[in-house]
Design a protein that fits this description.
The complex is a heterodimer. Chain A has seven helices and no strands. Chain A is mainly alpha-helical. Chain A has helices spanning 3-27, 30-47, 56-75, 96-112, 117-127, 133-140, 144-174. Chain B is α+β, with helices and mostly antiparallel strands. Chain B has helices spanning 6-18, 23-38, 49-55, 67-79, 88-98, 177-185, 189-198, 298-311, 322-336, 347-359, 361-372, 417-428, and strands at residues 102-110, 119-130, 134-140, 146-153, 158-163, 168-173, 201-209, 212-220, 230-238, 244-252, 260-269, 288-292, 378-379, 392-397, 402-407, 412-416. Chain B has a twelve-stranded mixed beta sheet, covered by helices on one side. Chain B has a four-stranded antiparallel beta sheet with strand order 13-14-15-16, covered by helices on one side. In chain B, 39% of the residues are buried. Classes of the chains: A mainly alpha, B alpha+beta.
Chain lengths: 175, 429
C-alpha cells in the first residue's frame, strides 16, 4: 500500500465520521454528504502531495468545506425556493412551517457560502463545527483575536446578505 | 419572506450544528472509502471507479440509513423540538459506537422466577450486524438447537424467517429501504444507545460487570419502545474501551402483565464479518411462503386500521402495539377462514390469511415510526367506535402548533393545538 493511502486511512479512522458529519450539516443531506466525502478522498488521493501537508486533518476539513459550498453553488437552482410556494389561505400556522424552517437553514448556508474564503472557514468551524477559537486559529495560521474578529465580521456580513435577499424578495413580491 | 436578525441567524446556526447523520449512514460512507483504499481497487483519479461507486444505487445503502437524521434533524427542523443536551463523555461514546461497522451480541431473557440465576432457558439469540451486508439473528432452544434464523437484507429489501425445525421459510418483501432501516434499528445497539442519549437519561455511576469496570445510564420509557406499557433501559459501558458491554431492558407489555428482563451482552465490536454470514443458504426442499409488508406511512396505517376493524368485530385495537392487535384480530381471522366441513386450507387460502395478517403491520409500524421520530403520537382506540366521525382516534404532531388527526370514520385532517385540546377531552373521557 502506498504511504499516502496509509495516511488517508489514518485520516479516515481519525476524522471520517467528523468529515461526514460536517458535510451533512453543510448540505443538509446524508446522501450528498456521502458523495462529497468520496469526492474529497478522491481529490486527496489524486493530489499526490499529501505527505507534504503538515496538518492533513485540518486540510481535509477545509477541503470538505470548499466542496460543500461548491456543491451548494452548483445546486442553488435545484433547491426549492420557499418564495415559490404559495402562501396558505389562512394565516394560521400550517405544516409548511416545517419546510420553511428547512428553507431558512438552506438560506443561511447559502449566505455563508458567499462569505470570503478565510472568513467563511472560520465561521463554519466556529458556528457549525463548534470548534474553540484557539483550534481555529491554529488551523488558519492566525491568532485567536483575528479569528474572533473574522467570526464577528462574518456574522455581520451574513446579516447584510440575508437582509438584502429579504428586501429583494419583498420588492419582487410587491412588484 | 423571512426576516433575519442576529438571533434568528444564530438560532439557525445552532440547529445546523446539532444535525447528526445516522450511524449506519456514516458507517457506510466511511466503509466504502476504506474498502477502496485498502483493496482491491487502487484509486486512480482518471479511472472513474469512485464515480461508479457513487452512482450505483445498490451501494448507496446510506439511503436506507436516514432514520437517525430524520430523528435528530427532523426534530429540530420540522417540529422545532429541542432534544436533551447529552453530556460530552456520553456523546463521545455515542459517536464512537457510530463509527463501528460490525457488531455481534447475545440476547436472552432473565428467568422471571429467579433473575439472579441467569438466562431463561429456550430464549437464546445471537445477533450479527454489518453496516455493509445487513443483519442476521440466530435463535436457539434450551438444547442449543436452532429454532429460527432471520435475515434482513438491505439491498434486496427482504426480511427472511427460516425455521429449520419446521423445514420451511418465509420471505417478506419490505416496501422501501426506510422500512429496512426502521426494522433493523430495533436490534441495533449503536442506534439505540444514541436514541437513549437523546432521552432524559440518568447516570447510574460506576459498577463492575463480569470483572469489568463499567459506568451506566438509565432511561425510563424511551420513545423507541412506545409499544410497551412500561420500559426501563440500562446501558453499561466499559470505562476502559468506552464501548457498551451490557443492555438491560425491563419490559412490560400490558399494565396487568408481569415485567420481563431482556439482556444483551457478550458484545464483540468491530469484528470482521464476511458476506457469507449474511447469505441465507436455504435448502431447496424447504417450502417458501411469501408476503408483502405494507409501508409505514399514513395511507398504509389507515388501510391497516380498516383491516383491523374488519377482523376485530368492528372494533379498533385497544392498544397500538403488535401483540395486542394480533390477539384481537385472531378470532376474526380464524372465523373468516374456518371451514365448517373441516377440509384443509388450500394454498391460496393460506396465502390470503397470511396477507391479511401482514396488512395490520402498517398501523403498528406507522405508530412506532411516529414515536421514534418525535411526533408524539397519541391513540384512543379503546374508547372510539368505528365510524364515529366526531371522535378522535389518533393524533400526532406535525409542527409546533399543528396536529394531524385520524377520526373514528378514518378521515384525516390537520388541526391546531387549541382545537385538539378541545376535541381530545371527550375522547379521553
Amino acid at each position: 500500500m502506498r504511504t499516502q493511502d496509509k495516511k488517508l486511512l489514518e485520516l479516515l479512522d481519525k476524522s471520517g465520521a467528523g468529515l461526514h458529519r460536517l458535510l451533512t450539516r453543510l448540505t443538509l443531506n446524508e446522501q450528498t454528504a456521502e458523495d462529497l466525502m468520496q469526492e474529497l478522498f478522491l481529490k486527496l488521493s489524486g493530489s499526490g502531495h499529501i505527505e507534504n501537508i503538515a496538518d492533513l486533518d485540518a486540510y481535509a476539513h477545509r477541503s470538505a468545506i470548499n466542496l460543500a459550498f461548491d456543491w451548494r453553488r452548483r445546486n442553488t437552482q435545484t433547491i426549492v425556493n420557499i418564495d415559490l410556494i404559495p402562501e396558505p389561505a389562512s394565516k394560521e400556522t400550517s405544516p409548511l412551517d416545517g419546510s420553511i424552517r428547512t428553507e431558512e437553514l438552506e438560506e443561511i448556508l447559502n449566505a455563508i457560502g458567499r462569505l470570503d474564503g478565510t472568513s467563511r472557514d472560520a465561521f463554519v468551524m466556529r458556528h457549525i463545527q463548534q470548534q474553540p477559537y484557539d483550534y481555529i486559529a491554529k488551523v488558519l495560521g492566525q491568532n485567536e483575536h483575528q479569528v474572533r474578529a473574522l467570526c464577528h465580521k462574518g456574522l455581520q456580513r451574513l446579516r447584510q446578505l440575508l437582509q438584502v435577499r429579504g428586501d429583494q424578495t419583498d420588492k419582487e413580491g410587491t412588484g | 419572506m423571512f426576516k433575519y436578525d442576529e438571533n434568528k441567524i444564530l438560532e439557525g446556526l445552532r440547529k445546523i450544528s446539532q444535525i447528526k447523520p445516522g450511524s449506519r449512514s456514516t458507517g457506510q460512507a466511511v466503509e466504502k472509502i476504506r474498502r477502496t483504499l485498502t483493496a482491491e481497487i487502487q484509486i486512480d483519479s482518471n479511472a472513474g471507479i469512485w464515480r461508479i461507486i457513487m452512482r450505483s444505487p445498490i451501494t448507496k445503502l446510506a439511503a436506507a440509513a436516514c432514520v437517525f437524521i430524520a430523528v435528530v434533524a427532523g426534530i429540530y427542523l420540522l417540529t422545532g423540538k429541542t432534544p436533551n443536551v447529552t453530556c460530552c463523555a456520553w456523546a463521545k461514546i455515542g459517536d464512537k459506537v457510530c463509527n463501528i461497522y460490525t457488531c455481534i451480541y447475545r440476547e436472552y431473557y432473565l428467568d422471571p422466577n429467579n433473575p439472579t440465576s441467569g438466562p431463561r432457558p429456550g430464549y437464546d439469540t445471537m445477533h450479527y450486524l454489518s453496516s455493509q451486508y445487513g443483519y442476521r439473528m440466530d435463535s436457539y432452544d434450551a438444547n442449543g438447537k436452532s429454532t429460527y434464523t432471520n435475515f434482513l437484507l438491505s439491498d434486496e429489501k427482504l426480511l427472511l424467517h427460516i425455521y429449520p425445525a419446521y423445514k420451511r421459510w418465509e420471505r417478506l418483501k419490505l416496501k422501501d429501504r426506510d422500512v429496512v432501516s426502521f426494522r433493523m434499528n430495533f436490534k441495533d445497539p449503536r442506534y439505540l444507545l444514541n436514541r437513549y442519549l437523546q432521552d432524559n437519561y440518568i447516570e447510574l455511576g460506576e459498577s463492575i460487570i463480569d470483572g469489568i469496570k463499567v459506568k451506566g445510564i438509565e432511561v425510563n420509557h424511551p420513545e423507541v419502545y412506545c409499544m410497551y406499557d412500561d420500559v426501563k433501559v440500562r446501558t453499561w459501558v466499559d470505562i476502559e474501551t468506552q464501548l457498551p458491554v451490557r443492555y438491560e431492558m425491563e419490559l412490560k407489555l400490558f399494565p396487568e402483565s408481569p415485567s420481563s428482563t431482556m439482556i444483551w451482552d457478550n458484545f464483540q465490536w468491530g469484528v470482521p464479518l464476511t458476506k457469507e454470514l449474511f447469505e441465507p443458504n436455504i435448502p431447496d426442499y424447504y417450502p417458501l411462503t411469501e408476503s408483502i409488508l405494507p409501508g409505514q406511512d399514513e395511507t398504509a396505517a389507515i388501510e391497516s386500521l380498516r383491516k383491523i376493524v374488519e377482523l376485530a368485530d368492528g372494533n379498533f385495537p385497544s392498544r397500538p402495539n403488535g401483540p395486542t392487535i394480533r390477539k384481537e384480530i385472531r378470532p376474526g381471522l380464524e372465523k373468516k377462514y374456518f371451514h365448517y366441513d373441516y377440509r384443509p386450507w388450500t394454498k391460496e387460502e393460506l396465502q390470503a390469511k397470511r396477507d391479511e395478517a401482514s396488512q395490520v403491520q402498517g398501523f403498528i409500524d406507522f405508530y412506532m415510526k411516529l414515536a421514534m421520530d418525535g411526533n408524539e403520537p397519541a391513540y384512543y382506540g379503546k374508547d372510539v367506535k368505528a365510524g364515529d366521525a366526531n371522535a378522535v382516534l389518533m393524533t400526532w404532531k406535525i409542527s409546533d402548533d399543528i396536529y394531524r388527526v385520524i377520526y373514528g370514520d378514518l378521515s384525516v385532517e390537520n388541526i391546531s393545538a387549541q382545537q385538539l385540546k378541545e376535541m381530545e377531552q371527550p375522547a379521553k373521557e
